[in-house]
Amino acid sequence: MTGTIAKSGMRSDPDDVTALDHIVDLRSDTVTRPTLEMRRAMAEAAVGDDVYGEDPTVNRLEKRAAEIFGKEAALFVPTGCMGNLIAIKSWTHHGDEVICDEKSHVNLYELASMSAIAGCMPRIARGLDGILSWKQIEEVIRPKIYYDSQTALICMENTHNMAGGTLHATASVNEICERAHDAKLKVHMDGARIFNASVALGESVRAMTKGVDSVMFCLSKGLAAPVGSMIVGSARFIEKARIYRKMFGGGMRQAGVIAAAGLLALEESPGRLHVDHENAQVLAKGIAAMPGLKIDPAKVKTNIVIFDCEGTGKNAVELCDLLREKEIWALDTATYSVRFVTHCDVDREGCERALVALGEIVGRPQTARA
Ligand SMILES: Cc1ncc(COP(=O)(O)O)c(C=O)c1O
Questions:
Q1: Beta-carbon contacts of residue 328 (< 8 Å; ≥ 6 apart)
Q2: DSSP, residue by residue, 23-39
Q3: Is the pLDDT of residue 214 over 50?
Q4: Ligand 1 in reach of 303 Cβ (< 6 A)
Q5: What is the pLDDT of residue 20?
Q6: Which of 164, 198, 129, 201 is nearest to 287 (CA)?
Q7: Is the shortest distance between the CB of 79 and ligand 1 below 6 Å?
Q8: Fewer beta carbons below 10 Å: N end or C end of the chain?
Q9: pLDDT in tens, 250-285
Q10: Which domains does the chain have, with CATH numbers?
Q11: What is the pLDDT of residues 53-73, one digit of tens each?
């Protein structure tokens, strides 16, 4: 393999897939490829025109997602970004504010769509490790005064990607929802990795999201489907969301082909996420022992491992480039911050290879002296 990982994390030569099987690709859990069962289910899927509501596989997927989350309805959308945008658009008016954590995906990585398309301003709160408390939210709610822009929505991210897969405690989510509703605000959860949170907390997604008005979750990340995300909520919300999905160009036709993989992802994949969390722990502990690298393994609860490399004298891009030469792919997330994400296409051996490669670059692990 030649070339380097661009800052965006994309391979410089996307057509060069020949050596993919030797690569330990820890850039993201979005890189997972569909399982054999998914590919079979896709080939055999019953399909119809979903814009007319006639795709039986999409209808099954939406029904199952709503059941699992204990909500009235669900909608299959092409991407997590579109799901978040549809929810924001559905709950707000132009000129409203949306409270979100500084490092949240809706604030940093959705191309300002909440402003560009939904006409809203992000109102930033700073959570502890990305996790917002009611106190932090309350401080940035606008007073109900006609000459102030108005707060309409609170967005929470569970797990929080850029904070290292951190978790919202369900009691805190419930408190935020109750108080938000008292203040006539809606709550949306960006649950791209909500099943990772569910496994780490040992709680059902239904219980974890009981009070929230809408949830977006991704089938295409740790759950290993090739495409697709879902939004769930009340029947009235989904009715509105369906209109915005079409307006944003997300009305799909024989989408049963991808929904078939989504159904398997939803039913089968959460059961193996604990393996990814265990692998993330192995990585975090190994990294913590290496000279110049900083991470607190106790904070790694799910499948995202973000560590600081400033002490190595190399920046994150340089470190990722050196790792890449050893067939380990990682993502630079800030000048001195590197991210590894575990998933079903990287096993324990792959994680151990990543640690060996990292050790060769930064120096031997520091072990206690006899
Ligand atoms: C927390 C979070 N929300 C939303 C998204 C967007 O998902 P998609 O890439 O399917 O648009 C991502 C993608 O990585 C994410 O990490």
A1: 23, 24, 26, 353, 354, 357, 358
A2: -EE-S-GGG----HHHH
A3: yes
A4: no
A5: 67
A6: 164
A7: yes
A8: C
A9: 999 999 999 999 999 999 999 999 999 999 999 999
A10: 20-31+271-362 (3.90.1150.10), 36-269 (3.40.640.10)
A11: 999 999 999 999 999 999 999
Contacts of 223 (CB under 8 A, 6+ apart): 195, 265, 266, 269, 270
Strand partners, 125: 101
Average pLDDT, the chain: 94
pTM of the model: 0.94
Structure tokens at 101: 């954590």
157 close to ligand 1 (CB < 6 Angstrom): yes
Can you list the alpha helix ranges (DSSP code H) found in the chain?
Answer: 36-44, 56-69, 80-91, 105-108, 113-116, 134-138, 170-182, 194-201, 205-208, 235-247, 256-268, 273-288, 316-325, 348-362
First to last CA, the chain: 42
| Closest CA to ligand 1's atom 8 | 80
**pLDDT tens digits, one per residue of 117-145:** 999 999 999 999 999 999 999 999 999 99
Query: Alpha-carbon distance 177 to 153, whole Å?
Result: 11
Instruction: State the pairing for strand pair 73-77/97-101.
Output: unpaired
Does residue 342 have a cis bond before it (omega within 30 degrees)?
Answer: no
Residue 11 · residue 20 · CB < 8 Å: no
Query: Using CA atoms, how far apart are residues 152 and 95, in angstroms rounded to an integer?
Result: 10
Residue 46: exposure state from Cβ atoms within 10 A (0-12, 13-18, ≥19): middle
Tens-digit pLDDT profile for residues 221-250: 999 999 999 999 999 999 999 999 999 999
Nearest residue (by CA) to ligand 1, atom 16, is 161
Closest CA to 329 of 37, 19, 105: 19
**Chain centroid to CA 265:** 15
Distance CA 148, CA 150 (A): 6
Cα 131 to Cα 100: distance, rounded to the nearest angstrom: 10
Ligand 1 atom closest to Cα of residue 104: 1
Helix-strand-coil split of the chain, %, nearest 5:
45, 15, 40
Q: By the 8 A CB rule, do 303 and 339 touch?
A: no
Check the CA dihedral 45-190-71-152 and report its sign. negative
